[in-house]
Specification:
724 residues, alpha+beta, globular, binds zinc ion
């Protein structure tokens, strides 16, 4: 027997050759925050343990459940998986374990990948059909484990909701994970259509040990289709499953000969210092691993935008040209035409009366004024326009792409029609050409998609996805669109999301530098798959100061602040302090103004110009690069709330402090994070609500930063700078 041991920076790999069986082979992958150990079992692989270096680990006692059968020619055929050592491989950045089944002939690859020296480690499962005929496979989750706990160990469970239509009163959940706890968080592109729907989560969850290190682990899913994460505790067992959503089941997906099923990629990471400690690693990881390198290279990212929706659907050439002049005067980076510019739903050509000289002329005028040009399009929606180039729901070809037959008296809403299923190859090809035409013909620097562009369930039996169960399906109407819910919903979303990703990857490849805004009736597509294919998110569809701050508070736990767009809409601002409060509630991430700026007073105009200037000169670099701390309870609009940016490399930071509507509480102290106790820091109160002063890190961390603002609905920006 020979024993070879390899040590390298990221991996401890022990390969045992000779008489020992492969079931005893273990592998490790490591980043600065995450230590994972794996075992190549003879019939299934296993994640053995996870640890944040130096902290007590988490030991898994179950192997990964691999699909036990497939369906061939209408019959269930059991699968017997066997490790294939010669196909499996590992190095400092990868562990790929390959399992095969002889009959039916299948190959499964269980892969883990280190993408950065820090942060979480990615995991994939792929199943390849090596038969010469079509098979159907049941649901393969991406990751399942069962941590061994101490029976009375106390744990906290964190998860955050999407901002969707409107952030809920809770948003960020921090709950005690006791014996008997059972929770499932779901994500799709359809969250919260109905009042009674459970709130969708950003597909991520975190479990923390409330000891002095506040260490633990988190898992997230890089996919926009129907996914779920389940957490269940029974005494000393904590079972976790992440991947495609199995409900409503049974799930089945078709694999033609040679086709590969790819379970949604997940990432698994360790952390310390609580959810902000996790976030200050995960956010840079998302930027480095999932983000668009060209976007992040742009020093003007995130942009300041002036958006036309302040005037609703009324936008036209005069308004647009006036807004462009005003945008340039205010110092914005981009002019963004929202809904209302087109001939009709599905007919994405400029309305001839509104834009007699077309849209490219508007884009060119924006460019002449030093602005980029962005455009809203709901490009998967069919309407009733019969113009050349329109996606007409009555066209027999288009009718077959839609998720269900619509009644003969159907009419689209002003900017909503009927979703086509992008999982149909012909529909996808049409959409890709249409997106290309929009970007090219209208000289776009940014394309915003909106609406339900990924189909939910689908009624069709001749699409590539599974057919719906005729006895278990529900068809309903919302905002002029018909939706289908059935047992095939997860498979439909699997195909449609993959097509959507491909369209955006291809378009990005042809147009480097083009920006994609992810919007789905507000923040319904806020997930890590979208983060890998777009550049920034509309995080909610409700735009008052409180909703903007709440959606930002929640979402910023897991995604880079620069990617989180707040639209700032008209709100009552009797005083200039209220006006700045309104603007700043949307200035903690990507800042989009959605107001009729020409209706502003001279004082408001001047204040807005100064705020935009401050954003570009001081705030933007912190939003891009600094650590972020949630230094108050979630905003409730009544009490005080605040967020702290701190960039330890530059020794610079800022606190956004907001005084809610309370008349009583005229001052508040916020305990700051990330500072060195013995170091000294200069505090600069931007609005001069207090004299600038120097304080020790210890004072700011324990006594806190005192902010005094007597006026309700007002704000202050306090800049922090390390003093040598
Ligand atoms: Zn379909």
């Amino acid at each position: 027997m020979k024993l070879r041991v390899f040590h390298s920076a990221g991996v401890l790999l022990i390969v045992l050759l000779g008489s020992l069986s492969w079931s005893q082979v273990r592998y490790g992958l490591r980043t600065a925050d995450t230590d994972l150990l794996f075992e190549a079992g003879a019939s299934s692989p296993r994640l053995l343990s996870l640890a944040f270096p130096g902290q007590p680990g988490w030991r898994n006692r179950s192997s990964e459940p691999l699909i036990p059968f497939v369906e061939m020619s209408g019959k269930q055929v059991p699968v017997s998986w066997q490790l294939v050592p010669q196909s499996s491989q590992a190095d400092s950045a990868h562990v790929d374990l390959v399992y095969e089944s002889a009959t039916p002939h299948l190959r499964l690859t269980w892969e883990w990948r280190v993408r950065q020296t820090y942060g979480p480690i990615e995991h994939d499962v792929r199943i390849e059909n090596l038969e010469s005929q079509e098979i159907w496979i049941p649901l393969q989750s991406t990751l399942a484990f069962d941590w061994q706990l101490n029976a009375h160990e106390s744990l906290q469970h964190w998860f955050v909701e999407k901002g969707a239509n409107s952030p809920s009163p809770i948003g960020t959940h921090d709950v005690s994970l006791d014996d008997g706890y059972k929770w499932t968080g779901t994500s799709s592109t359809y969250g919260d259509i109905h009042e009674h729907d459970p709130r969708e989560i950003i597909p991520w969850t975190l479990v923390e040990r409330p000891d002095s290190a506040h260490s633990g682990w988190y898992v997230g899913i890089e996919f926009s289709g129907r996914t779920s994460i389940a957490v269940e505790r029974k005494q000393d067992s904590l079972k976790v499953t992440a991947g495609l959503n199995p409900d409503p089941g049974p799930f089945g997906t078709r694999l033609k000969a040679g086709e590969v099923f790819e379970a949604p990629t997940v990432f698994l990471g360790g952390f310390r210092d609580g959810p902000d400690g996790a976030g200050n690693v995960l956010r840079p990881w998302v930027r480095a691993v999932l983000g668009n390198p060209l976007t992040w290279k742009d020093p003007n990212y995130p942009l300041v935008v002036n958006n036309s929706w302040g005037g609703g659907m009324e936008v036209n050439e005069d308004i647009a040209l006036r807004m462009i002049r005003d945008s340039a005067e205010l110092g914005a980076d981009m002019f963004h035409v929202d809904a209302g510019w087109f001939r009709g739903v599905g007919d994405w050509y400029p309305h001839p009366q509104k834009f007699p000289h077309g849209l490219a002329a508007i884009a060119d005028d924006a460019h002449k004024h030093g602005l980029r040009f962005g455009l809203w399009v709901d490009w998967t929606q069919a309407g009733l326009s019969t113009e050349h180039g329109a996606l007409n729901a009555r066209d027999p070809k288009v009718r077959d792409w839609m998720v269900t037959d619509i009644p003969t008296n159907w009419q689209p809403e002003p900017f909503k029609g009927q979703t086509i299923d992008l999982g149909v190859p012909e529909a996808k090809d049409w959409a890709e050409r249409e997106v290309e035409r929009l970007v090219t013909d209208y000289h776009l620097d940014m394309l915003e998609h909106d609406g339900y562009l990924v189909a939910h369930g689908c009624d069709r039996v001749d699409h590539p996805h599974a057919a719906p169960d005729p006895l278990n399906k529900c068809i309903y109407k919302d905002w002029g669109s018909y939706f289908v819910d059935s047992t095939n919903s997860t498979d439909v979303s699997y195909h449609a999301v993959r097509a959507y990703y491909e369209i955006y990857s291809q378009t990005r490849g042809r147009h480097p530098g083009l920006l994609f805004e992810i919007c789905n009736d507000g923040g319904r597509m806020v997930d890590f798959g979208s983060a890998a294919h777009g550049d920034y998110f509309s995080i909610t569809d409700t735009y008052d100061p409180l909703s903007n701050r709440r959606a930002f508070y929640d979402t910023s736990y897991v995604l880079p602040a620069a990617m989180l767009e707040s639209y700032v809409e008209k709100w009552p601002t009797p005083s200039i302090e209220n006006f700045r409060y309104m603007l700043r509630s949307g200035m903690m991430g990507w800042f989009t103004i959605m107001l009729d700026t020409t209706s502003w007073s001279t004082e408001q105009h001047t204040a807005a110009r100064q705020e935009i200037d401050l954003y570009k000169k001081e705030l933007r670099s912190l939003i891009r690069d600094a650590d972020l701390y949630h230094i108050s309870a979630r905003p409730d609009g009544v009490h005080w709330d605040a967020m702290q940016y701190w960039d330890p490399k530059r020794g610079k930071g800022v606190v956004f402090a907001f005084h809610g509507s309370s008349e009583e509480e005229k001052a508040h102290a916020f305990q700051l994070h990330g500072l060195k106790p013995n170091a000294r820091y200069r505090l600069v109160f931007h609005d001069h609500s207090a004299s600038d002063r120097v304080a020790s890190g210890e004072e700011l961390a324990t006594g806190g930063l005192n902010v005094s603002l007597p006026l309700p609905n007002s704000s202050e920006l306090i800049f922090i700078e390390g003093v040598e």
